[in-house]
Structure formats: C-alpha cells, structure tokens
Amino acid sequence: MNKVLLASLLVTSLVTVVACDSDASSTKSVPETTGAGTDTTGTGSKLSAATLALDITGVPDSLSATYSSVLKFNRYTQVQAPNGKSIHLIAQDKLSDNQIVRARSILTHYLDSLS
C-alpha cells in the first residue's frame, strides 16, 4: 500500500514539475481534429491516431465531471498497480503526449517488482 501511495505521489509531483518547467514554445497541445480523429469520450473531443496509438484516450465519462474540458483536462491513460487496481493519469492540454508517456513509464518502473 505504501509503495502504491509513494508511486502515486511521485507521478503527481513529476507531472506537476514537468508541466511547470515547460514553456509554451516547447510543449504542444493535442490538436483538435475535424472529422479525421476518433471520438473517445462522447463529448466531441477528438484525438489523433498517433495519440490513440500511445494508449492515451480522452477523459472517460466516469471522470469527466471532476476532470472536465472546462478545466482543460483532455487526455487520459492508466497504469495497472500490482494489486490489480488502476492508477488514473489525467492530463491537461498543455502537456505533450511524450510527457504523459514518460510519466506513465516512470510510474510503471516504480511499481515493477525488482525481485
């Protein structure tokens, strides 16, 4: 339990630091596509095929009340914890797909058993 809590805290800190340490010239938001993307949330938000290929989707309906597009949350991914539960990673529009994948990879690394 403590390992999962520590890992969650680390990822939250990492995403915050990555987001705060970036400037507008180095980050790219996910472009809204018109007709070519796949609607992943039912809310009209479309993500590119490249984003979907990275296992990043739109924010699920079950989380969209808290993490709404009004607050600029537009992408979601998850990591399976050793106990079988999901750790949700919800990203705002200023984070690049690479930053989301990196945060997910670091969390996965901390959750993997080395023995």
From TrEMBL:
Protein name in the entry: Putative lipoprotein
The keyword Signal is assigned to this record: yes
Region (Disordered): 22-44
Keywords annotated in UniProt: Lipoprotein, Signal
Residue ranges, compositional bias (Low complexity): 33-44
PROSITE patterns xrefs: PROKAR_LIPOPROTEIN
Biased composition (Polar residues): 23-32
Organism phylogeny: Bacteria, Pseudomonadati, Pseudomonadota, Gammaproteobacteria, Alteromonadales
Cleaved signal peptide residues: 1-19
Organism: Shewanella benthica KT99
